[in-house]
Structures are given as C-alpha cells and as structure tokens.
Amino acid sequence: MLHKDTKKCIFARENQSGMQLLTIFGNLEQLNTVQLNFNQNSLNMMNIAIAFIMFGVALGIRPKHFKAIVRNPKPAVVGIISQYMLLPALTYLLVLAIKPSVPVALGMILVASCPGGNVSNMISALSKSNVALSVSLTASTTVMSLFMTPLNFAFWGALYASQSPLLVPISIDALEMFRTVFIILGIPVILGMLVGMKFPVFVKKVEKYVQIASILFFIAFLAGALAGNFNLFLKYIHLVFLIVLLHNGISFLGGYIFPKLLKINELNCRTISIETGIQNSGLGLALIFNPRVFPPELELGGMAFIAAWWGIWHIVSGLTLAFYWRKRVI
Question: With contact defined as beta carbons under 8 Å apart, do 83 and 115 qualify?
C-alpha cells in the first residue's frame, strides 16, 4: 500500500495536471510580468475612431427609433440585466470551470464588469439589428458603470479570490466617464442624426461609404495597436486565445438565449446578444493602467493581456456574427 503522504503527493500532481489539462493553456503565471505597450495616445486614437463610427451609424437613426424604446422598454431592461447580472455570473461559472490563474480570472471578471463597448453600435448596424436599442443600451450601461463595474468586480472577484492583492476597490471618475460618453457617443450621434435629417438625399448617397470608411479606420487603428505589441502577442497568445474565445462565445450566446426565453423578438435578441458580447475592454485597460486604481507594483500582466486580447477578438467575432445575421434579415 502507498504511504498516506505519497498518496497526497500523487493526488496533488494529478489535480495540478488535471487543472492544466482542463485549462489547456500551460503556465498562465508567466503572463503576470508582461508589460503591454498601450498609452494615452493609443486610447485617444481609439476614441476618435469610435466617434467616427458612431457618426456614420447615426446617419440612419431618427428620433422615432428612440420613442419606440420608450413605448416598449422591456428589451432595454432585459439588455441591462443581461449586461450587468447574466454576464458576470456566466463569467464566474467559467472561471470556476477552467480554473485560470488569479490575475487572468480577475481580468475576465473585470472585462465582464465593464459596460457594453461603443463599437457594438457599429456591429448592430452591420447586422441590421435594432441600432436605436443598441445606442440606448450602450449609453445606459456606460452611465451605470460608475457603480455597477466596481460592484460586480468586488462581488464576483471576492467569490473567486478574496485574498488576492489585485482585488482592489475600483473607483471610476464620474466626470471623466460622462465626458468620455458625451464626446464618443453623444456628440457623434447627435451630429449624425442632424445631418441625416437635414440632408436625407445626400446622406442616402454617401451613408454606405461613410460607414465603410469608418470601419476601415477602426481596423487600421486595431492593426496599429496590435503592431505595437506584436511580439508579445505572438509569444503569449496561445495562453489566452481559447480563454477569450470561450468567454466571448458564452457572452454572445447567453445574451441571445436569455432574451429569447423572455419572448423578446428576434431583432432585439440579436441586439442584446451584441451588447452583451461586445464589452468596453478599453475601460478595463484604462483601469488596469491607472496607478490610482491598481498600484504599479502589482503584477498586472495577466489582467491586462486578457483585456487587450478581448478588445481585439470581440471585433473579429462581432463582425463575423454581424455578417452572418446580415444575410438572415428578418
């Protein structure tokens, strides 16, 4: 018979091996010291690209689209619940299942705690979903992020790793958030709607080209951002690719099935799916790189890599889903 201590060692090795087999990633701890090259100029360029996209999207939006949401608020309420309750809960179940390193798990939870990404409005437009609902959800969840992002990160993060030094109290500058939302979302949407209503004939001719140009501009920005970290992505992408693929996949799927079960119509189910699957990982990165939130002496590489790769991957998956749904217009 095996000695009791020997049995424990064998069990520990099997348990560790089983955990690595389940995660299929190898040693995620090596991500902790990775330093990504994302600076304020990169974030500013991203905001400009998104604002340009929002202007193009808003050319086809009219006030009547928002009135329809006020008359029937159920899809908007369901979308908010999907964003701030369903997605963090699904994320927590996923980290329990795959057992990644604590920094990677907290990076996943932080991304899931962020509001819907502004690029979701472009994805909704491309998929011919409900753009007005998409814009309303993005604006609502972004404002709500002032308290929902810190709350979700603290609650779900503590359930997974209550003793981690990375589990810091998050504070979001309300004035800065409002300014960002107004500049990136508010001004371009208002201007786009005004131009669309004032020059409908001209807009009908150029709308398609403006939207294509805005998408190409955004893709060019992503390519530039990736180029700045290309060697790091090549070296470490195998560690997080499947994690983000699974995480993003359950976000889209959960965001579609949940409203479907509540008898929301197909067009709005698609919109809510896109809003749940496209996260503002840029906000996550901004929080991670903010020394007043996460002290720089902490090893943040695992969190940052998850947020950075999510920011690239959800564009790929979102565009793929958009063109799939576009060919299946209701």
Answer: yes
